[in-house]
Amino acid sequence: MANPTLSDAQAGATPKMPMPAEPSRTILALDLGTTTGWALRAADGLITSGTASFRNGRFDGGGMRYLRFTNWLTEVDRLSGPIEAIYFEEVRRHIGTDAAHVFGGLLAVLTSWGELRGVPYQGVPVGTIKRHATGKGNASKQAMIDAVRERGFSPTDDNEADAIAILLWAIETQGGLA
Questions:
Q1: pLDDT of 19-63, one tens digit each?
Q2: Sheet bearing 27-31, strands edge to edge
């Protein structure tokens, strides 16, 4: 399986967000999971998004998904960065044990990657993201997709929609931090 890259699935800039007159901070927003949704605002204000798969292959050892995730973060930073802030969906409860383990492993890689490079990171509670995007803290996956589409984006699935919603939350609520 090939390593996921920025070209796996990209959407263009949103037509409803004005481009800033001065450079922006490069922000990465993530919905961590086996299929990780991502959204990135580059220094020029352009927003791109997509998904990256970190599914283990048939002959992969247990740590290969985490090595691929580390390499993917480094590649995003190299191609679009430097990344100046990372926001991620902070999940407190998982339906399955495997999902919880994958999330925990990806979170450990993300936080250690950020610490090594001095990149600040912040978890955003699920209800906060949903409330900001839809007005309801318990919005469905489809409601999140619809809310992001109303903002001019074309997410391929709920993972990408969540990442876009996290990025929009960061830009719109974090002031100088975003």
A1: 445 568 899 999 999 999 999 999 999 999 999 999 988 888 888
A2: 47-53, 35-41, 27-31, 85-90, 121-125
Residue ranges in the chain modelled with pLDDT below 50: 1-16, 18-20, 176
Residues in the chain: 178
* Residue bearing tokens 């929009």: 168
Side chain identity, residue 44:
D
CA distance 168 to 133: 8
Give the per-residue SS3 of 128-165: HHHHHHHCCCCCCHHHHHHHHHHCCCCCCCHHHHHHHH
Topology, domain 6-177:
Nucleotidyltransferase; domain 5 (3.30.420)
**In the numeric block, which tokens belong to residue 25?**
């901070």
d(CA 41, CA 156): 18
